[in-house]
Amino acid sequence: MEIHAKSADRNLLLEIHGELDHHGAKGALRELELAIDAALPKKLVLDFAGVTFMDSSGIALILRAQQRMQLMDGSVLVCHVPQQARRVLDAAGIGRLVTIN
Q1: What DSSP character marks residue 96?
Q2: Rounded to the nearest 10 degrees, how much is the dihedral formed by the CA atoms of 100, 3, 18, 80?
Q3: What is each CA distance from 25 to 10, 22, 42, 73, 84, in whole angstroms?
Q4: Which residues partner with 66 through β-bridges?
Q5: Phi/psi class of residue 78: alpha, beta or left (left: φ > 0; alpha: ψ in -120 to 50)?
Q6: What's the mean pLDDT in 54-66?
Q7: What is the pLDDT of residue 45?
């Protein structure tokens, strides 16, 4: 699990690569928090194009991102979600909480 962060003009892009499961999510949550604290973004984009597998740990990551951004009056966009991960997100109804493209 790798996360690449890019920040500009109070926008933060996090490109997530690998398996977003129980083991990968622990490190990903830490990296997410550090990146948000460093950038203080108004908009957070989670790019899931590189996610090869996701379970409910990915939901936890998105919910944590949403909570942090809500505290800063910001927004979250989840994009480029692979089909397997999309099924997990749809089953959990995450689209009611964050924008998924």
Answers
A1: G
A2: 20
A3: 25, 5, 23, 24, 17
A4: none
A5: beta
A6: 95
A7: 98
Query: How many CA atoms within 13 Å lie on the side-chain side of 90?
Result: 8
pLDDT, tens digit, 9 for 90 and up, residues 13-32? 999 999 999 988 889 999 99
If one looks up domain 2-100 in CATH, what number appears? 3.30.750.24
Q: Are 57 and 24 in contact (CB under 8 A)?
A: yes
**Nearest CA among 59, 36, 69 for reference residue 3:** 36
The domain spans of the chain are 2-100
- The confidence score (pLDDT) of residue 24 equals 87
CA distance 68 to 87: 24
Do the Cβ atoms of 33 and 68 come closer than 8 Å? yes
